[in-house]
Amino acid sequence: MADDGIVVPKGASLRLTNLRIGWGPKGPEVGPATVELSLHMAPVWIEIALGHLVDSEEHRLRRLAAAKDDKASSSAEGEFVAAMQAIVAAATALDAFYALIKPLAGISEEMSATWRVKGTARYKQVAEVLRRGFALQPKPSDRLRQMLKEIYRFRDWAVHPPAGFSLPVQHPESGTGVEWRFVAFRFDNARAAVRSALGCIALLSWSVRADAPEALLDASKATVELTNRLVQRWRQRYGPLTDDEKFESTGRDELTPTRGSNDVT
Fold first, then answer.
1. Are residues 113 and 233 located together in one domain of the fold?
2. CA-based diameter of the chain, in Å?
């Protein structure tokens, strides 16, 4: 450990373990404790995703303004790269949120082992953890599962890219024939992915089930506190984050977890 102390960044938690307090000849004696840190990564990855999304949007606007010259080609490449990174970051944020909630969702070691043996798709694991952790009703649970399936499909295209040749596909805006990834990884799809990821994390954390354990409520509070400004940033640039009118009607200072039946997403 550095002699200059410990830096606890925003979003990190600190705890002391192995702390011993005794009574000696001269009074109370406090033994050395172990200092541990933990960083909540879901908001970090959402912020990364938002940054890439803005970059993708700016490249798209330049592409639309440049028509069919060299600048249009360069902007199309910039939009593609930034959109792909935004989508991957959005999926990683969901992975980080899943890691936070899994220990609190009652997932047994046997179930985790079964998932590993069967090679259960990542989106199915994440969906089940969030369903159990937040006691989702069937209809929102199905919507969540479908949303996760779509985001992880795009993520897999990026991190496990298929090789080989394919026929060009028509770009929906330019009308030109392009390699299929330039259609898959474009601003519109990145915006949908980031909206879904941030909306899922923020809305689930905001509306905690009535019988939630204190550990889950604490995790939700921490998530809400760290995502508040990201939610506001989204609303200012892109409008409503979710289709939930009650959530969207809240102000900056009202975005705090509330207990209740969780019929969201």
1. yes
2. 85
- Give the domain extent around 13: 1-39
CA distance 109 to 107: 7
User: Residue 253 domain-assigned?
Assistant: yes
Please state the domain count of the chain: 2
Answer yes or no: do 255 and 165 share one domain.
Answer: yes
Tell me the per-residue pLDDT of 59-93, one tens digit each, with 9 for 90 and over.
Answer: 999 988 886 666 567 889 999 999 999 999 999 99
Please give the model's pTM, rounded to 2 decimal places: 0.85
- C-beta of residue 193 within 8 angstroms of C-beta of residue 147: no
Pairs from 170-179 (Cβ < 8 Å, separation ≥ 24): 173/64, 174/63, 174/68, 174/72, 174/76, 176/68, 178/76
**Token couple for 129:** 């953890």
